[in-house]
Amino acid sequence: MYCIGKLGRGDANDKNRFSYAYNCQIVMHIPTLMDILQTYVSHAGLVIVMQKIKRNTPALISGSIRNLFYAVLACVIFFTLPVRADKWVDLSHIFNDDTIYWPTSKGFEMKKTAEGKTEKGYYYSANDFASSEHGGTHLDAPLHFSETGYGVEQIPLSRLVGMGVVIDVSRRALKNRDYQITIKDITDWEQVYGRLPNNVILLFNTGYARFWPDREKYMGTTERGAAAVQKLHFPGLHPDAAAWLVKNRKIASIGLDTPSLDYGQSKQFETHQILAGAQIPGFENVTNLDALPPTGAMIVALPMKIGGGSGAPLRIIARVPSAGLRD
Ligand SMILES: [Zn+2]
Predict the structure, then answer these.
(1) C-alpha 320 to ligand 1 mean position (Å)
(2) CA 248 to each of CA 96, 161, 189, 196, 255: distance values in angstroms, whole numbers, following the listed order
(3) What is the pTM of this model?
(4) Which end of the chain is less enclosed by CB atoms within 10 A, N or C?
């Protein structure tokens, strides 16, 4: 008897998934085993482990024997690995007096309206706050650069929640604060991890989150006002790479750990225009991307639901399968 199953998800070129062939008399046990795997094990975590093993194993054996080897190995890992819970990683900066905003935007303001014990004897605290849309960790709605783009409240949730990948460009970006992420950065990543899956949340780690909240190091200037915009220096996504992604891949949304999708010296904000024109939201001033694996994290990026908003403060978090955590 012959049985083919699969674990993981994505399109046919997605290396996050592997298939196995099993050819023996106990084939009837396979559906049960798959149920257990998919119900109780960190699904994506096991896939990541298998992916690493497959990448590092020389092709000494081939065909169905090789697939059987991987299937048995997956079972051994499943039954012997110590159980570790998946972890949540916070990808948002705190909003407070230090929060970095675009030089022409008002910063975050918070005013206490109540604090302390009331006359009735209970403790009570409340504040008023005010904020520009585009500051701190925030979302750029397509409406930001496209007249027909979604406003914040219109963005489909499927563009805000889903599987994430992280492309690490920090080695080059930290050497050049005017670095623009290239098509090659993306295709090099795909050489190792496989084609970007459809509907993925694509995150770029430039390494600049480490400078937060030092404005000089993070964005090139501490000055504010219109004149300061000329002095901005930080990495972004090159318009050619944005256009390539829109044309050749199906991306749900794009985020990075700098103040803008376009690099600091951009004058026309072409990357914003291209992505907004394709209804792709952006996440800016994201942090902690170095705590995520290149593949396998589940991203939840929920902005304040501002009606007609061109952007909004964003709480973005990631669920990381235990096997994908960097120790
Ligand atoms: Zn923005």
Answers:
(1) 26
(2) 39, 21, 15, 10, 18
(3) 0.76
(4) C
Task: Give domain 89-105+133-324's CATH superfamily.
Answer: Putative cyclase (3.50.30.50)
Residues with CB under 5 A from ligand 1 (ion): 134, 140, 284, 311
C-alpha closest to that of 274 among 254, 257, 304:
254
Give me the residues paired with residue 315 across strands: 302
Gap from CA of 156 to ligand 1 centroid (Å) = 18
> Distance, CA 30 to ligand 1 centroid (Å)?
49
Q: Quick check: 272 pLDDT over 60?
A: yes
Chain-centre distance for alpha carbon 201: 5
How large is the average pLDDT for residues 34-51?
Answer: 55
**3-state SS class at 199:** coil
Residue spans in the chain of domains classed CATH 3.50.30.50? 89-105+133-324
- Cα 62 to ligand 1 centre (Å): 50
